[in-house]
Amino acid sequence: MLKRRVESRFSTEEDETGVSIHFIDDEKIDKGNIIIQKKLRIKPDDTDGILRSKLARLSEKALSDALNLIIIKNKKEFLYQDEKKKSYYPKRSLRHSKINLDQKFNKIMNQIRANTPYPGARVKMHGREYIVDNAVLIRNKYKKNNKGLVLKSLNGEIQFNIREEKYAEKAKRD
Questions:
Q1: Which helix (H) or strand (E) element contains residue 172?
Q2: pLDDT tens, 133-164?
Q3: Which of 34, 58, 61, 115 has the highest local Cβ count within 10 Å?
Q4: Alpha helices in 1-117 (DSSP H)
Q5: How far apart are the first and last CA of the chain?
Q6: Contact 133, 162 (CB under 8 A)
Q7: How does pLDDT run across 14-27, given as a tens digit for each residue?
Q8: For 38, which DSSP code?
């Protein structure tokens, strides 16, 4: 249930994530009865970095609760983890960070959220790659400002907020 990588939650447009704490059976990392699961609602302005921070705090509480449950319950009383219901998401790479302007705006935004702060969503213009922290779909009422990079997309023009150059160069080297 809660096995997908954090950043994959944005690409699948899920509205919750969480942590699972379980026993390790047969020396297999993801096999064993579930001790406790805690859920967390994903907010529209959450990024990968924000979610990881929230999940770290939630994990502290879950671990404390799990330790208390282990003391008072027998191992066989815990929820069986059905191997057939597990799902995994492939390891993230720079390939996942490249923005495709032929997607709908909400997909582009979810990609930006999934790659912020690391490795950073990327867009190319005139052979140069930029790391994007946020974007706005430009509507008739919205006036463009001189900050950011404006590119045409499937839904119209998008203004991308570009990460400061010093951070972009460091991410490119990593």
A1: helix 165-173
A2: 999 898 765 555 566 788 888 888 888 988 86
A3: 115
A4: 8-11, 48-72, 105-114
A5: 32
A6: yes
A7: 888 899 999 988 77
A8: E
In CATH, what number does 94-173 get? 3.10.25.10
| 3: pLDDT strictly greater than 50 | no
pTM of the model: 0.68
CA distance linking residue 1 with residue 58, whole number of Å: 16
**CATH 3.40.50.170 for domain 8-85:** yes
Closest residue by Cα to residue 34 from 45, 44, 26, 23? 23
Amino acid letter at 134?
N
Q: List, as own/partner pairs, every contact residues 136-145 make where C-beta atoms lie below 8 angstroms and the sequence separation is at least 24, other chains included.
A: 136/161, 137/105
Residue 38's DSSP bridge partners are: 19
Q: Where in the chain is the domain with CATH 3.40.50.170?
A: 8-85
Q: What are phi and psi of 145, to 5 degrees?
A: -110, 175
